[in-house]
Write a structure and sequence with these properties.
Elements lengths: L2 H13 L7 H17 L4 H15 L7 H22 L5 H6 L6 E6 L6 H14 L4 E4 L8 H12 L2 E3 L7 H14 L4 E4 L9 H14 L3 E7 L5 H13 L3 E5 L8 H10 L3 E5 L7 E3 L2 H9 L1
Parallel strand pairs: 1-4, 1-5, 2-3, 2-4, 5-6, 6-7
Antiparallel strand pairs: 7-8
The structure holds guanosine-5'-diphosphate.
Length: about 300
């Protein structure tokens, strides 16, 4: 998943020569580093920061071993990334639901079409079941043809109740039905899918805002496709503006070869990545692990 970043480190390490690097040589190295990092979709401000710090530590120094050089790069990388992690609170969704006193715990799912939203709704339903948490799913996408059938198929397969209405009906009303049903049937959590939208589509954003206002969710999750590249940042910013989401789930991390998406989303939203999608099966939802992410950067 992080091949490009690994290459950056290993390429830079090769430059480690047994002589002092001149400022001019260093500038060339740093410029190349920046390009590689940007191509890995590491956010621009982070690229600037990492590059500056590496430069500061390398100027006027002579490296006797290439290991030493590599260590500086690793340390600067790690320090900058840990700083991002530190700004983000730690969230355990399962624990939040289990300690919730006022059932149902309302989870609102937002994101653009194709990001893996519906699949992730099903994965969450599966995860809750695994943790002995009862849930219902709300077919809040009443807009895209086929969406209700698609989510119904998942709900049936998972043996979960689906709350739905006709196409074209008000998603906020469907969501309210889901909450009411859960209250009367003593269901622990309600997972509300919404219509996928282009983040610049104001009408659809207003629709999300309306669901948000009617339901007052306990936890809103932004679903981001890790393959969306730089567009992911603008998606996250726009959705955050409207929903103030509490955390995100990055999908298709199994296929992501760049790895910058994770850092982008963390540094731009300052909200935790609660899970990552690592495949197409229901079980393919993993807790995002900071340590694993960091160690994966340099292996
Ligand atoms: P939606 O339009 O946002 O509801 O997206 P879907 O849930 O329909 O997902 C779009 C495609 O992405 C489907 O083919 C999913 O199987 C696939 N998908 C979703 N999550 C993942 C994931 O974590 N890994 C992989 N490899 N594929 C995924």
């Amino acid at each position: 998943m992080l091949d490009k970043i690994k290459n950056v480190v290993s390429n830079l390490s090769k430059i480690a020569v047994e002589k002092q690097i001149s400022e001019k040589e260093l500038d060339i190295v740093i410029e190349n580093l920046k390009i590689d990092l940007l191509e890995s979709e590491i956010p621009f401000n982070l690229v600037e920061k990492i590059s500056e710090n590496i430069k500061k530590h390398m100027i006027d120094r002579k490296f006797s071993r290439s290991d030493e050089f590599k260590e500086i790069i690793k340390n600067e990388f790690t320090k900058s990334i840990v700083e991002i992690f530190d700004k983000v609170e730690d969230v355990d969704l399962i624990n939040l639901i289990k300690t919730n006193k006022d059932n149902p715990f309302k989870i609102l799912i937002v994101g653009i079409n194709g990001s893996g939203k519906t699949t992730t709704v099903a994965k969450i339903g599966y995860l809750l079941k695994e943790n002995n948490i009862s849930s219902v799913i709300v077919a809040g996408d009443t807009f895209r043809s086929g969406a209700i059938e698609q989510i119904k198929e998942h709900a049936d397969r998972l043996n979960l109740k689906l709350i739905s209405q006709e196409y074209g009906s008000d998603p906020a009303a469907v969501a309210r039905d889901g909450v009411e049903y859960s209250k009367t049937h003593n269901i622990d959590a309600v997972i509300i899918d919404t219509s996928g939208r282009v983040q610049t589509n104001n009408n659809l954003m207003q629709e999300v805002l309306k669901i948000n206002n009617v339901i007052n969710p306990d936890f809103t999750i932004f679903i981001g496709d890790s393959l969306a590249g730089n567009d992911l940042v603008s998606q996250a910013q726009e959705f955050f503006k409207f929903t103030k989401f509490n955390g995100s789930i990055l999908t298709k991390v199994d296929a992501d070869v760049k790895g910058g998406a994770i850092l982008s989303i963390l540094s731009e939203s300052s909200k935790p990545i609660i899970y990552i999608g690592t495949g197409q099966e229901y079980k393919d939802l993993e807790k995002f692990n900071e340590e694993k992410f960091l160690s994966g950067l340099f292996q």
